[in-house]
From TrEMBL:
The keyword DNA-binding applies. This is HTH-type transcriptional repressor YvoA. Gene3D superfamilies: Chorismate lyase-like, Winged helix-like DNA-binding domain superfamily/Winged helix DNA-binding domain. Pfam families: GntR, UTRA. GO terms for biological process: negative regulation of DNA-templated transcription. Residues 5-73 form the HTH gntR-type domain. Keywords: DNA-binding, Transcription, Transcription regulation. It comes from Oceanobacillus oncorhynchi. GO terms for molecular function: DNA binding; DNA-binding transcription factor activity. SMART domains: HTH_GNTR (SM00345), UTRA (SM00866).
Amino acid sequence: MTNNAPKYEIVKNYILSQIKAGIYQPHQIIESELELSNNLSVSRITVRRGIEELVNEKILSKKKGIGTFVNPIPKFFGFKAGIGFTSEVKNRGMEPSTKLLKLEKVKANAVQAEDMKIAAGEELWLVERIRYADKVAVIYEIEYFDASIVKDLNVEICENSIYEYLNEQGVSYEFIDQRISATLANSKIAEFLDVEEGAPLIDTKIIACMKNGKPFNLGFALYQTKNYYLMHTIYK
């Protein structure tokens, strides 16, 4: 697969890898924009964009006239709900991984058909997975993809980022409808997420739509709350 990631991701990934390896310590000043530009063979504008992204994500902070510092990493990590789990994990200097439980084509029932704006009986990809950050189970998810739009899925794709793959295929979302609620872990989910039965979970449902408003992804996810929480950034 070709890598269409923006160049500033090179900067972000380098800084995050330095943090994860312990080379950058909390409160330590990192290299200057010029040094990073030379070391990574990218422009200073690209370096500045990568640093700004990490500042916005509270991983770095800037002190005028002094430099850019590494923020202390909190015990509990916040994830943006819904999509982008792989990038969210990487942005926090952790290693994402996935255990694929099921991949198959199914016929849409009436409720799924209504959500996906298709006729009942049309084909959907069913993907059931557990998502990990540094080998700690974070999410149990079941997702459905419109098979007329998402032509092909395989084990390799589903064990990585489906959205990154779809973006390469020219399939991306314009907006997402999301519902967030609370639930308790049953015995099956407790085992999957390594939590106690009855532990509180965050329950999400998303419907991802393209520019023309057509949904291509219906997803359900359960987040464990022992080590993680969800967060939303609200703009004025």
